[in-house]
Amino acid sequence: MRRLISRDERFVALALLLPVVLLAFIVYFPAIQTFFVSLTAWDLRLQGSDRFIFLSNYHKLLTDPEFWQVTGRTLVIVAFVLILELGIGFLIALLLNEKFRGRALVRALVILPWMLPPVVNGFLWNWVLNGEYGALNGLLYQLGIIHHYQFWLERPAAQIFWAVIVQTWTRFSFPTIVMLAGLQSIPKGIYEVAAIDGAGPLTRLRALTIPMLLPSITVALTVEFISAFQIFDVVWTLTAGGSAGNVINPFTKTLMIYNYEVVFRDLRLGLGAALAYLILVMSSIAGFLFIKNLYNRAVQR
Amino acid sequence: MSSRRFSVTAGVLAMFLFALFASAHLFAGGSAEKGQSITFMTPPWGVPPDAEALKAFSRETGVKVEVISLPMDQLYSKVQIATSAGQNPADVIFLSEEAPSFIVAPGFVSPLNDLIQSDKSINLHDFDRVDFWTLNGKVYGIPSYVQMVMMDYNKAKLSQAGYSAPPTTWSQFKTEAEQIKAKGIDQYPIAFGAIDWSWYLISLSMGDQMFDANLNPVFADSGSKARSAMALLLSFFKEKLITPAMLSETTPHSIFMGGTGVFHQSWQGAYGLMNNPKSSKQAPNVAYMLLPDVGNTWSLDAALGISSKSKARAAAWKFIEWYVGDANQRAIFNAFGLIPARKSLQAALSSEGKIAQYPVLEEQAKHVHQLPRYATWWGPWTTKVTELLREGIQGSLTADQIVDDAAKDWNDLKARYSGK
User: Fold this and answer.
1) Scanning A262, B224, B230, B275, which has its CA 20 to 30 A from the CA of B86?
2) What is the pLDDT of residues B254-283, one digit of tens each?
């Protein structure tokens, strides 16, 4: 009889079996279960509420002004975070691509904020910005820039501003490293030829560096979009008011905090599961568009 | 299908099913109670302080108690999730003032009437605030300690401002706070949180009922005291009589203990903590005050209940009997300053001179006006109120808009949770 599966194929099948089973249990099974939960009215405060309501939760969310308000706020945060992260990351990557004394130390310092958990960064900045004993007030007061301590997190716009700053601080290392790797993969000879042809530094940057760096920029952009879109820890620790008493600051409520509120505070599992799926769909669409429009175009070039 | 392909497919399926059953068992956990072992889920301040006494209880009764201590905000979600999944979260559950809404009304703890009737060792007449734990004639918790939302103040700072006694009306209260600020004694004389509690405190104290017997939000009636209370509270923030730092806090206590504030939203039993120089910069000048005007407040009692999924009710009951007994209640009082719910023990502690400012507490206790915390939707509603209040503090909503929105939210939630 002809062998249907070769020995190698059998080995590969067996080797893949465990990860597939694990993946099925850890990711796909809960994901599918969550989808079914999203089609129910399940509310832990109401016994017997887990009845099937088809797509009502999705309809409710998509027609709820709060959902769009929170989505809009999240997108504002994402836009500013991406501009700052990629801008700062690009400049630092250019700097670190040059040879200078202490470059290794600077690289290590650049990675440091990324190594700290976002919760720690959030608390750290909360202390820095504290209106009564914060380090920022102390520094500015000592320098004579302010004459009274300021409550930096008092106003909603300021809360969003600082959430953007802290998220950027927490995450800028990643795009820096990705772009630095991209810069180092560009052959030096291209620049030499361009210089001989009379291209100045800005022209070389615009015509060579940025186009050749586009795949790296797209990777950084996609990863950081997802990270900023799902921002939680930084906002929670910086401005959400903490979890005691289940108080959530309405002015910095992002999609993930809204999801936390619906699921863990209000215990509306059905609605929360639907919201989780909407977040997943939005993240996926953005990721797809980034890859399709930037990465593929850059690779084709 | 060939036999080889069939056997590979069958093998994969078998492994999948094995993993499925294994994980199902893993998630199911141990369901049956073993003999006289029970679990007690509690926040840290509910853990019996005298470990030796607990061991002695186990030796005497044969009931082994495993204490699960976890933060209060996690306790209820664990109970809700475990019970909804058909599991017993713990046999005995510590019930705080949020329990009626979070776990009693939804049916996650069981009524105790059968145990109370069959075993006369717990005399409910000796307990304060049994009504707080009674729903539709059924008792769901045996009270452990009693607590009220109260106010305290810094005597030294008030005296420095030229006032010999705390204010007795809200109008006086604001005038005195303004004077304290104007004289530079304290930049932020009022330590009230940017949370719903501050509104309830002023509203009840002004004499508003907030809800009628049918749970209608009468706080939104035209010209209600609750509307005045909201306007007054917003003015405290607008005039910077309350520090803006309160917007990033959930309670006012750490700011007050840090030295900011003269008048503080406090609680019965806070006296020791506020006057402890190790924890409070206000020490030793803090004293309780009666709430101004009508002076109504609400209670923050605690009790012990039994999970609706417990299979060790008799052993759990034995533990509750011990927990609310003299020795453990005295130990809790000594460790945390929490006043026992048993009237006989309160009287004993008072006669021993152990309860600070007992006459003030006694007087304030005459003005407890319970909020409907047994409403299933109380929890979600209160958090909405805080969010609305914060929008008001930021100038996005007026006092009347906050009250109107809070009433609308109440009615929406009431309709959802009562199925109307």
Assistant:
1) A262
2) 899 999 999 999 998 899 889 999 989 999
Q: Which residues contact A127 (CB under 8 A, 6 or more apart)?
A: A133, A134, A135
Range of the domain at B48: 37-146+300-365
CATH for B167: 3.40.190.10
Say yes or no: ipTM exceeds 0.95: no
Please check whether residue B379 lies inside any domain of the structure.
Answer: yes
CA atoms within 13 A on the CB side of A97: 20
Binary contact (A239, B248; C-beta < 8 A): yes
For chain A, say whether B401 makes contact (Cβ under 8 Å).
no
* Among the listed residues B350, B179, B204, the one whose alpha carbon sits nearest the alpha carbon of residue B290: B204
Q: Which of B5, B23, B81 sits opposite A4 (nearest CB)?
A: B5
- Number of domains present in the structure of chain B: 2
Q: Are B16 and A130 inside 8 Å of each other by CB?
A: no
Q: B135 and B56 in one domain? A: yes
Q: Say whether A44 and B258 touch across the interface (CB within 8 A).
A: no
- Does A149 touch chain B if contact means CB atoms closer than 8 Å? no
Q: Which of B15, B250, B390 shows the shortest C-beta gap to A242? A: B250
pLDDT, one tens digit per residue, over B340-349 is 999 999 989 9
CB contact under 8 A, A151 and B23: no
**Amino acid occupying residue B409:** D
Pull the structure tokens for residue A256: 């993930």
**Which chain A residue has the Cα nearest residue B6?**
A4
Residues B43 and B115 placed together within one structural domain of the fold = yes
| Residue B13 placed within a domain | no
pTM above 0.90, yes or no: no
A248 touches chain B (CB under 8 A): yes
Q: Is B255 in the same domain as B305? A: no
